[in-house]
Amino acid sequence: MSENKPASGCPMHATAPAGDAEWHGAQMDFSNKMSYGDYLGLEKILHAQHPLSPNHNEMLFIVQHQTSELWMKLMLHEMRAVRIHLRAGDLPPAFKMLARVARIMDQLVHAWDVLATMTPPEYTAIRPYLGASSGFQSYQYREIEFILGNKNAALLNVHAGTPEFPLLEESLNTPSLYAEAIHLLARHGLPISAERLNADPALPTVADASVQQAWLQVYGDTTRYWALYELAEKLVDMETAFRFWRFRHVTTVERIIGFKTGTGGTAGVSYLRKMLDVVLFPELFALRTEL
Ligand code: HEM
């Protein structure tokens, strides 16, 4: 049983009745120790939900977005490290992290099932309280897109003047994770065009014939290029999971708001459908027709 020492002479700390505070040897007194909530900062996280409407369902809307942002935070942590490992040619840790990123994305894909329990009238009741706020302004999502190579300088404008702007701008100007993979192909002696190797990192990935040929060589001689082959398949896993996320987003949005415009100002579903056409690693998908 833990002692109930008055921490500061305050009688409130000494009031737990002795004898009732025992449970399988578990620690009960955290007046002088770090607790679970302290370590995780739960004081902040669990008090960061502030519904603006009187509607019961707004809590779901908030928690769904906040948990997605937390998973995105972990994804970015892993992806930035993957990029560093690829640059160093250190593939085993990169593979481990890429596998984790794909699983996080799977989790985010399944998370849409929870949001899909929100009906159109439930959303309509909270929409006026959302103002112009929209996931479109998620700077973490934008950084994920930039790291994957879907660069778009115009989208930085949304974040002008915010504390996140410098980080996002740096991400726009840093070679994507996929660009690092292409440089790795070149370092393995596979011929990559100078145009692709020297491409402006702030521009979106453009399919390149030499890159497709290089990946074809990798897929054609897996014994020789096993590590690059594994990298290619991990990238395909990641893009596939990302496509599923986009698809579940647009179908859930259509189910909830139909064809109304988005709070962020776009046409809504038709905008999100266009985003489904974005291909992050074009050569890795194009080559499949030739295999
Ligand atoms: C009822 C729930 C939701 C609705 C109705 C909805 C609707 C929309 C719409 C219409 C857009 C296009 C931009 C705009 O005009 O607003 C958008 C973008 C976006 N939403 Fe959602 N969304 C919902 C939930 C979520 C959730 C839970 C997330 C998770 C973080 C999310 C993340 C995003 C992101 C990242 C974008 C930008 C996509 C891009 O630019 O490609 N949304 N959303």
From TrEMBL:
Pfam families: Trp_dioxygenase. The keyword Nucleus does not apply. NCBIfam families: trp_2_3_diox. This is Tryptophan 2,3-dioxygenase. Heme binds at H249. GO terms for molecular function: L-tryptophan 2,3-dioxygenase activity. Belongs to the tryptophan 2,3-dioxygenase family. It is an enzyme of class 1 (oxidoreductase). Keywords: Dioxygenase, Heme, Iron, Metal-binding, Oxidoreductase, Tryptophan catabolism. Homotetramer. Substrate binds at F61, I62, V63, Q64, H65, Y123, R127, T263. It catalyses: L-tryptophan + O2 = N-formyl-L-kynurenine. Heme-dependent dioxygenase that catalyzes the oxidative cleavage of the L-tryptophan (L-Trp) pyrrole ring and converts L-tryptophan to N-formyl-L-kynurenine. Catalyzes the oxidative cleavage of the indole moiety. Its cofactor is heme. Coiled coil: none annotated. Binds 1 heme group per subunit. Its EC number is 1.13.11.11. Pathway: Amino-acid degradation; L-tryptophan degradation via kynurenine pathway; L-kynurenine from L-tryptophan: step 1/2.
